[in-house]
C-alpha cells in the first residue's frame, strides 16, 4: 500500500485523504436509526415469550394472556403489529433479545442479579415468590438442608440462581439442572411422582394447582421477586424508555384489573374441590354434556361456562336440593322456574336450558359500557345474589371511587352488602356479598379447568356481544331487575 501511494501525485493523495475524512465525519454525524424507528419501519414489535397460562396462550376467543395483553398495548401505542417470537423458556426469551431476534422479552422473567448484569429490565409487571414444590402425601421438607436429592430445576432458570444462593448457607442442599424440561413440565413430573421436588414462581404454582391438585408448597426459596420485561443493553434507550413510560402510565387500577383477570381467582378451589371436579368430569358430566352444549348453542354461550355454573350450583346432581328450597342442576327457585317455563326443576334438560337462558338474560342486561370479561363476571354475581343487588354494589363502588364497569372494583365492594351502615343506603338492602364474591371465583376456576380438560373450541366466545337469535326478548318478563334468586 505504501508503494501504491508513493506513485500517486501528492495532490491526489491529499484529495483522497480529505474525501475519506469527510465521509467518515458524515457517517459519524448522521443520526443512527433508533430501535423505535426500526420497529416502525418494520411495522411490528417483536416480543419473545413462552406459551403458558401466565404469559401467552390461545384462548377460546384468540390470543390472550397477562403479558400478551400488556405487550399488545405497547404495540398499539407504537401504531404497529405485535409479532410474537415463541420460545421454549424464559432463558431462550432472554437470548432472543440478546441476539436481536426480538426487541423485548416478556416471558414471566424474574429479575435476578446475574440477569441484571447482562440485560436491562423494565419496572415490575408482577411480583412473585419462588417456592419449593413437593407432592401431596410425601414428607414435607421444612428447610433447604432437608433437600439432599430429587430436586430438579430448569437449566439457566431463576430457580437455579436462587438455589445457588441458598447453598451458601445450606451446603447439604443438592439439585439437578435439566435442559429437557421447563418449569410447568417439572411441576407435572412432581404431580406424577416422577421427581420429588422442583422450584417455581408462586403465580405459576397457583395456576397449576388447579390442574394438578397433588402439588403442595413446602417453603419459600427466596424473598418476593420482580417479574419484568427484558431489553438488550446498548446505547439506544428509545424503546426501553418508551416501555417504561407506557408501564408507568398504566394506572394501578388498570394493572389490578389485568391481574384479577388472570390471577384473581386461582386459589378459590382447594385440593379436595379440584379432585372432586376431576372425578365428576368422568362420572357425571358425560350424561349432561350434550345438554350443556345444546344450551350453549341456543343462547350463544360457551357450554363450558354453563357447565361450570351448574357444577358450582349442584356438582351436576339433578336431584340436589338446598336448605332454601332451590332445586336441580342449576339450583333454580320455584319463582324463577315459573318465569323460565321450567315445569320440572329436577329434569336435567329443563334445568340446564332454564339456567342458560337466565345467565344469557343477565349478560344482556349489563349496561353496554361494561366489556368482557367483566361483563360475564358481573352477570355471574347477579345470578348468585340477584340483579338488584348487583345494581346496588356497582353504585357503592362508584361512590367509593371505584369503577363500576370493572369486576375487580365491584368485587372489592361486595362485602359491604353485609354491613348495615352500607346496605341501609341501598335500594335492595342486605345481601350475602361474601358469598357472591366466592361464587364468581369458583365458577371462573371451574370454567378454566373445563377449558383445560376440553380444549375444543367453543360454539361462541364468552359471551357474544350481539344477542343470539334465540335469546330472551329485551323486555323484562323475568322481573330480574329485582333479586329473584
From TrEMBL:
Enzyme class, first EC level, given as a word: lyase
EC number per UniProt: 4.2.2.n1
Give this protein's Gene Ontology molecular function annotations.
peptidoglycan lytic transglycosylase activity
Xref: Pfam families: SBP_bac_3, SLT
Q: Name one GO cellular component term.
A: cell outer membrane
Q: Which SUPFAM superfamilies match?
A: Lysozyme-like, Periplasmic binding protein-like II
Q: How does it sit in the membrane?
A: Peripheral membrane protein
Where does the record place the Solute-binding protein family 3/N-terminal domain?
44-266
According to the UniProt entry, which residue ranges have a biased composition of type Basic and acidic residues?
467-478
Annotated catalytic residues: 313
Q: What keywords are assigned to this protein?
A: Cell outer membrane, Cell wall biogenesis/degradation, Lyase, Membrane, Signal
Catalytic reaction(s) noted? Exolytic cleavage of the (1->4)-beta-glycosidic linkage between N-acetylmuramic acid (MurNAc) and N-acetylglucosamine (GlcNAc) residues in peptidoglycan, from either the reducing or the non-reducing ends of the peptidoglycan chains, with concomitant formation of a 1,6-anhydrobond in the MurNAc residue
Q: According to its UniProt record, where is this protein located?
A: Cell outer membrane
The answer to whether keyword Transcription applies is: no
Q: What the protein does?
A: Murein-degrading enzyme that degrades murein glycan strands and insoluble, high-molecular weight murein sacculi, with the concomitant formation of a 1,6-anhydromuramoyl product. Lytic transglycosylases (LTs) play an integral role in the metabolism of the peptidoglycan (PG) sacculus. Their lytic action creates space within the PG sacculus to allow for its expansion as well as for the insertion of various structures such as secretion systems and flagella.
The similarity comment for this entry is: In the N-terminal section; belongs to the bacterial solute-binding protein 3 family. Belongs to the bacterial solute-binding protein 3 family.
How is this protein named in the record? Membrane-bound lytic murein transglycosylase F
